[in-house]
Amino acid sequence: MARPRAFDEKTVLEAAAAQFRVHGYADTSTEQLCEAAGLRRSSLYNAFTSKDELFVQALEHYADTMCGHQAAILTDTSLTGAERIKKLIGAIVDEERVARSEGHAAGCMGVHALMNPDLRARDERIARILDRDLRKRLDLLEDAIRAGRIDGSVPEGTDAAEGALLVNTLIAGLRVTAQSGVTPEALHRIALDGIRSLLA
Amino acid sequence: MARPRAFDEKTVLEAAAAQFRVHGYADTSTEQLCEAAGLRRSSLYNAFTSKDELFVQALEHYADTMCGHQAAILTDTSLTGAERIKKLIGAIVDEERVARSEGHAAGCMGVHALMNPDLRARDERIARILDRDLRKRLDLLEDAIRAGRIDGSVPEGTDAAEGALLVNTLIAGLRVTAQSGVTPEALHRIALDGIRSLLA
DNA sequence: CAAATTTTGTATTCCAAAGTACAGAAAGAG
DNA sequence: CTCTTTCTGTACTTTGGAATACAAAATTTG
């Protein structure tokens, strides 16, 4: 019995995340967010009370979506453990490739939020989301490494937890290195060199 | 024939960098900068015209200092090429260790500035400093790798440019991963695993 | 010791960006 | 068709922090 929302909430969260992941929290103005979402100020504030709140929701949605993508790759049992990890790296590099074709780097909400202790302190939910997301992704990586140890694509002695942390660290590094204009091809090669210790 | 400055400029730049490397540009207030430097607003503005200018100078000093430290390690001819790179990683991890003992991560002006396209756009000098710094550090790393190829500590086939980029990428990743509370010991182990491809 | 000049402290101004108010338009329910 | 409710657009208010003004204090040199 009332006028329904003319925009899709998820779509707005994705548009917001696209801004935040490139510019970070502080350097994304509510103006930019409106522009990116194709919404007016009041619609945005009506749906999401504040920039802070919008950030939290965008981060949550972003983390879930990302994690979903990575889970799809890392649990694909048609591939060996090592192949899954290589495919994940390929996917990250591809993200950078399309961002590059748009004239910027892909950025990463996770890196931005992690690197900013003040942001995490401002809203405890942010730290919680980041922790949960990290934990989930490490678990997925550990499972893939264990699978690799069994199928023979990963050396037997490999510590799953540390291998997972290495892959995650390398990915964060890629996000940063991508900002300095390195080609996706070079990015791909160094990432594969970085996980050499995980390949049988 | 005039009252001399009561503070040391370098010391102020270092205090400023210590704030910027943790909080980033936007989330460091001029208030914090005054506090950290032990200076009053007017002294700060008198010496460095603006927050922007202070940031640029702090970044320049920070990059030079960091590069100097790294150069000392990477050109130490009493070590093999591989040993130099391992020692560099140890030094980065130690930085994180002391930061951790102070209750935070070390952060990195380079990572913050790189991840923020708006900041680089605001003042062309920032992009210039970052480019020069990256170039210098990659050159040092390449030299160490080449030295390693000669002394036999690094595999013959290794591409120096890509090896250098890998080490640099890993270090950036360490800066990020350190923010999530991983112990310095774990950080050290995964970093060494990450450069496995560079070790003979 | 006094002049010259710069530093320091407090208070103020200024600005950009976050957030709010409210009138008018749109859409479903009866 | 009309009533109700929610959405949309414009203009306004608020706020946090960067930057400035200026008077008083401090210090070196001649």
Describe the structure.
Two copies of one chain form a homodimer. Chain A is mainly alpha-helical. Chain A contains ten helices and no strands. Chain A has a single domain, classed as Tetracycline Repressor, domain 2 (Orthogonal Bundle). The radius of gyration of chain A is 18 Å and the shape is elongated. Chain B binds a DNA duplex (30 and 30 nucleotides) through helix 3. Chains A, B: This is TetR/AcrR family transcriptional regulator. Chains A, B: InterPro entries: Homeodomain-like_sf (IPR009057), HTH_TetR (IPR001647), Tet_transcr_reg_TetR-rel_C_sf (IPR036271).
Quick gist of this model?
The structure is a homodimer of 200-residue chains. Chain A is an all-alpha fold.
Task: Give the key terms.
homodimer, 200 residues, mainly alpha, Tetracycline Repressor, domain 2, 10 helices, DNA-binding, Homeodomain-like_sf (chains A, B), Tet_transcr_reg_TetR-rel_C_sf (chains A, B), DNA-binding (chains A, B)
CATH class of chain A reads Mainly Alpha
Helix content of chain A: over 70%
Poorly predicted regions of chain A: none
Major interchain interface with per-chain residue totals: A-B, 46 and 45 residues
Indicate the proportion of strand residues of chain A.
under 5%
Radius of gyration of chain A: 18 Å
User: What is the overall number of helices of chain A?
Assistant: 10
Mean pLDDT of chain A: 95
Alpha-beta classification of chain A:
mainly alpha
Oligomer: homodimer
